[in-house]
Amino acid sequence: MKLKVCGMREPKNVAEIAALQPDYMGFILWDGSKRFCVSPPEVSDTIIKVGVFVDAPLEEIEHAITTFKLGAVQLHGNESPQQCRELQGKVHVIKAFGVGADFDFDILLDYLPYCDFFLFDTKGPMPGGNGTTFDWSILKNYGFDLPFFISGGIGLAEINKINELRNADLPVYAIDVNSKFEIAPAVKNVEQLKNFKEKLAL
């Protein structure tokens, strides 16, 4: 199972977390976030750099892809299937959805042809980074083959639940972590993340 560490910003902390070799590192390029990153630092080519956007214009996203050498974009707002199609083939397209008890997976149908991954986060007051988990049992209603990320308040306490997902017949591709490992906005606890990554690999 892949690991994405999101909400990164500070160069020293980025270097420390990069040394743990997560598969993805996310930088929030939306100024409404307390983890807003103006200029993502360089990371190893072995780590896929993800730019996280919320309803940004196509030109802004394309500029960031080139400027910051992004390998993926995570669209965390109300972006349309058409917007995903416009980015298809330029980078990996990850379309995020906030999941609540009444989430209807049929809304994914129009996005399927234009996304490389979905990401399911907890529905909350903010587009992301709300720090709480959603009821993962709802994922049993996911009836597609497209792989997805799981996000939303995931920490060391969720390791057993993650391992249960391994045995479920679901295309869970990656775990996305953020707030549960923070010691300050956009600054992650290196030792806790190292411990989590080791347990994730078991």
User: What coarse outline follows from CA principal-axis ratios?
Assistant: globular
Strand content: 15-25%
Average pLDDT rating: 94
Tell me the domain tally.
1
Report the end-to-end length measured between terminal Cα atoms.
10 Å
Number of helical elements: 5
**Regions with little confidence, pLDDT below 50 for 5+ residues:** none
Say which CATH homologous superfamily is assigned: Aldolase class I
Under CATH, the topology is which?
A: TIM Barrel
CATH class: Alpha Beta
Task: Provide the spatial order of strands within the biggest beta sheet.
Answer: 1-2-3-4-5-6-7-8
Tell me the helix content. Answer: 10-25%
Secondary-structure element pattern, one letter each: EHEEHEHEEEHEEEH
Q: Sheet with the most strands?
A: 8 strands, parallel, barrel
CATH architecture: Alpha-Beta Barrel
- Quick one: how many beta strands? 10
Radius of gyration: 16 Å
What do these coordinates show?
The protein has a single domain, classed as Aldolase class I (TIM Barrel, Alpha-Beta Barrel), CATH 3.20.20.70. It is of the alpha/beta class and 202 residues long. The model has no long low-confidence stretch (mean pLDDT 94). α2 (58-68) links the parallel β3 (48-53) and β4. The strands form two sheets. Strands 1-2-3-4-5-6-7-8 form an eight-stranded parallel β-barrel. The protein has a two-stranded antiparallel sheet with strand order 9-10. The protein is globular. 23% of the residues lie in helices and 23% in strands.
